[in-house]
Design brief:
The complex is a heterodimer of chains A (294) and B (158). With 294 residues, chain A is mainly alpha-helical. Chain A is 65% helix and 1% strand. Chain A is elongated, with a radius of gyration of 27 Å. With 158 residues, chain B is mainly α. Chain B has helices at 2-6, 29-53, 56-61, 71-97, 125-128, 143-151. The longest helix of chain B is centred in the middle third of the chain and has 27 residues, at 71-97.
């Protein structure tokens, strides 16, 4: 054709038409450059945190049902919450020692116990207020509100693991998620009859929705075996607690948990074969700013 | 911390960026969000279909004792389709509403039009556009001049 080779510059006069495309154009097309194939078992392990979170929600709901119909004494729940807290604190300290390599300072420990006692007393003082919080609202609205808040909690929860030496700053969504769970348990607790039940239920919800996620993010990075065994224990407990009231709920819960733990990772693996990410020199250049952050 | 040194940004002390460029490590979270969105929308679709078409006895057999009235299964899509049509109408109506009438002065000039005050150095800016290799300056041509060019001189009688 012409002696002059086509160049991708606008400022030169070409003998080519404006819409000319050289036939080497698609040779620089690259597909799936950053492709990293998933493997099944790590995905299952990552999905375990979702299973655990759902299980804690259902354990809480089962506990609420038991206290609501009076088959559980709230005093036992208070004592078991305290026992869970102490056990969880010991586990947390062991995990801190494992990840950071040094023991938690004595002053920090004292601070933790001081604030936990403060929360304990504040909840105890607030429980008469919380009991009458929704006295003017009908129970049906409370069930619907609690369901919506728990759905919000499950959708927004932070299922990631703790990155050692990384940022430990909470993201907004995980804070929102925790708030949704706590407010949901507050409105549920306001349906109960006496102050002690309200106190016990909210104490239990604080253990499950505010403190357990902290332990979970640390557990996730330490040991796959421990993590998997906890993931077997929590759903089993939630299914066991739900097995008596009605059978259909147990069935649905079992199906959902099995789906999330085992079927959803397989689906994700299958869906990855359809991944088709096209890159080429026509892409917008992405400035790399402060890459040390990522 | 050799990894950290590699990723350091260019500075007056080390002005050369590493080449070949290190691969961009992107978060994989969007993949999972997309996956969750895909799964949940398909699940919601089937739930919606079952809610809309299953007979009442079947739902009761499934253990569902309360569900929103199935009227809404028709009403919500119908309303949303009308809402989409309404957006076309609304934008059209807003455009017509904000258009000035033909005898409004805003159809001729406005606060953003470049005023036609002659430059002191170059008394007639319209003349400079007449030179053959000039890129004409942007001016609003006054409506009187436009009319003069288009319709000729004003009749003497009036």
């Amino acid at each position: 054709m012409s002696s002059r080779e086509w160049e991708k510059v606008l400022w030169k006069k070409h003998p080519y038409p404006d819409n000319y495309i050289p036939h080497t154009f698609l040779s620089s097309l690259r597909k799936n450059t950053n492709f990293k194939p998933y493997t099944y078992w790590p995905l299952v392990l990552a999905a375990c945190s979702i299973t655990q979170h759902l299980s804690t929600v259902f354990i809480f709901l089962a506990t609420f049902i038991r206290i609501y119909d009076g088959s559980w004494d709230p005093r036992y729940l208070v004592w078991s919450s305290v026992a869970i807290f102490l056990l969880g604190y010991v586990i947390w300290e062991v995990l801190e020692y494992k990840t950071l390599g040094y023991l938690v300072k004595h002053a920090d420990r004292a601070k933790t116990f001081k604030s936990s006692i403060l929360v304990f007393l504040a909840l105890m003082a607030l429980s008469p207020v919380l009991r009458t919080l929704t006295a003017a609202t009908s129970s049906d609205s409370i069930w619907a509100l609690a369901a919506c808040l728990f759905i919000l909690n499950v959708l927004l929860a932070d299922y990631g693991s703790l990155r050692p030496y990384g940022h430990t700053r909470d993201r907004l969504t995980s804070v929102l998620s925790m708030n949704a769970a706590i407010s949901s348990s507050v409105v549920l607790a306001s349906r109960l009859r006496d102050d002690l039940s309200v106190f016990a239920l909210i104490l239990f919800s604080v253990q499950l929705f505010a403190l357990y996620p902290l332990v979970r993010t640390r557990l996730q990075v330490t040991d796959a075996f421990t993590y998997a065994s906890i993931t077997i224990f929590l759903p089993a407990l939630s299914i066991y607690l739900h097995s008596s009231p009605t059978n259909i709920i147990t069935l649905i819960l079992g199906i959902v948990l099995v789906f999330i733990t085992f079927v959803a990772p397989a689906l994700l693996l299958w869906a990855q074969s359809y991944k088709n990410e096209i890159r080429g020199p026509w892409d917008v250049a992405v400035p790399q700013i402060n890459t040390a952050d990522h | 911390m050799a990894d950290g040194e590699e990723r350091e940004p260019t500075s007056p002390l080390s002005p050369v960026a590493p080449y070949p460029r290190p691969p961009i490590q992107r978060s994989r979270a969007p993949e999972f969000y997309g996956f969750v969105g895909w799964i949940s929308t398909s699940l919601l679709f089937f739930l919606y279909i079952f809610w809309a078409i299953l007979p009442e006895e079947w739902l009761e057999w499934l253990g569902i004792t309360w569900y929103p009235s199935r009227e809404w299964a028709i009403l919500v899509p119908a309303y949303s389709v009308v809402l989409i049509l309404l957006t076309y109408f609304t934008y059209w109506a807003l455009a017509i509403y904000s258009t000035p009438p033909f005898n409004d002065l805003r159809t001729v000039t406005g606060p953003h039009s470049k005023a036609h005050f002659p430059d002191k150095m170059n008394p007639d800016p319209y003349l400079s556009a007449a030179s053959p290799d000039a890129i004409p300056e942007m001016y609003d041509i006054p409506i009187g001049l436009v009319n003069r060019v288009l319709y000729g001189e004003r009749p003497k009688g009036k």
